[in-house]
Amino acid sequence: MKFCSQCGAPVIRKVPPGDNLPRFVCEACQAIHYQNPKIVAGCIPEWNGSILLCRRAIEPRSGLWTFPAGFMEIGESAEQAALRETLEEAHADVEIASLYAVFSLPHISQVYMVFRGLMRSPDFKAGAESLEVQLFAPETIPWGLLAFPVIQETLARYVRDLEQGCFMLHVGSVMPPMR
Amino acid sequence: MKFCSQCGAPVIRKVPPGDNLPRFVCEACQAIHYQNPKIVAGCIPEWNGSILLCRRAIEPRSGLWTFPAGFMEIGESAEQAALRETLEEAHADVEIASLYAVFSLPHISQVYMVFRGLMRSPDFKAGAESLEVQLFAPETIPWGLLAFPVIQETLARYVRDLEQGCFMLHVGSVMPPMR
To answer: CATH class for domain B1-35?
Structure first.
């Protein structure tokens, strides 16, 4: 951020009075521009014990696999965002069964909120942001070709819960992979 | 938003190519400025069956009661945000027991993530944003003087769970009060 989005003057970075963190502040109009983490709402769609995954048609990680997920929009609930992403990316109609995972990714200031989605029919097809969409039995999931560490972590836990027939809420943080 | 935060030129509102929602777009540098819901991380601190509440010293709703909660910051996890708010507003040291509630407030584009916090000691005092801080037994909670509908909804469920000795995850939306 270089300019004030309210008046167009240059911003500086400083700790406002009464605050304890540096913010982008406009010295012309005094506006304080807060920046906050974003929510990624997602859904693991399930049909007869298989999981619906999408192969990404967009960067980052184009060509790799994910469950439907994307940035929550202004004016919607987390559940609505998860349903919308599932429709947009996989043209799949699901009923939300429960909140499955809440994972913070502090290094990129995102929080994933992933719901369990029971598909109402085995109908699906690739949306504009997907190259292809496919149902995977747990033993056929392309573990080496998943788009992000948080997708891998969530799916690994999901497959374990699926095998044990008991879905728990998973809460925590997912850190970047070691290099 | 009136000006581009990257180049300072005026922005217009339009649907970018490949998108389906209007965004603030800079026609000078082509930057697209997305706006997304914010996360409010909170904690219900508990000591021997009583709940720690803070009386707000800041607007909105100055003078009314809430559990510690505030906007999650860049670079932290939801749990870290809840612990930080509990320290800042109530100087209370809690151990997070579980994620207790995830409530979307679509009309103001916020998502509350509220954790159950077990106080490590009965020590607390008002932080800079609190007028006073007090432990309330369930039957003494000032129901008519709570700051926001989401605070009332979360506390009402919490007290019910406390009475039944069984804490469940609560997920859903909290709408604005009827007028």
So the answer is: mainly beta
**How close does chain A come to B146, measured CA to CA in Å?**
23
How far, in Å, CA of A32 to CA of A26, rounded? 7
pLDDT tops 70 at residue B72? yes
Q: Are B69 and B155 contacting, i.e. CB atoms less than 8 angstroms apart?
A: no
CB contact (8 A) between residue B38 and residue A35: no
Nearest-CA distance from A38 to chain B in Å?
A: 7
Q: Could you tell me the pLDDT band of residue B140, with boundaries at 50, 70 and 90?
A: very high
> Which residues of chain A make contact with B99, given a CB cutoff of 8 A?
102, 169, 171
**From the candidate CATH numbers 3.30.365.10, 3.40.47.10, 3.90.79.10, 3.90.226.10, the one assigned to the domain spanning B38-173:** 3.90.79.10
Q: Which residues contact A55 (CB under 8 A, 6 or more apart)?
A: A63, A64, A65, A126, A130, A131, A132, A133, A134
The pLDDT of A91-108, averaged and rounded, is 98
- A3 to B2: CB separation less than 8 angstroms, yes or no: no
Q: Specify the DSSP element, H or E, that contains B104.
A: strand B94-105
CB contact under 8 A, A5 and B128: no
Do B5 and A4 lie within an 8 Å CB cutoff? yes
Looking at residue A179, its pLDDT comes to 65
Mean pLDDT of all residues in A52-77: 98
User: Which residues in chain A have Cβ-Cβ distances shorter than 8 Å to B98?
Assistant: 171
Sheet of A23-26: strands edge to edge?
A11-14, A23-26, A32-33
Domains of chain B: which residue ranges?
Answer: 1-35, 38-173
CB within 8 Å: A37 and B6 = no
Residue of B nearest to A107 (CA): B75
DSSP-H helix ranges across chain A: 78-90, 149-164
ipTM: 0.95
Show the 3-state SS of A4-37.
Answer: CCCCCCEEEEECCCCCCCCEEEECCCCCEECCCC
Say if residue B177's pLDDT is above 80.
Answer: no
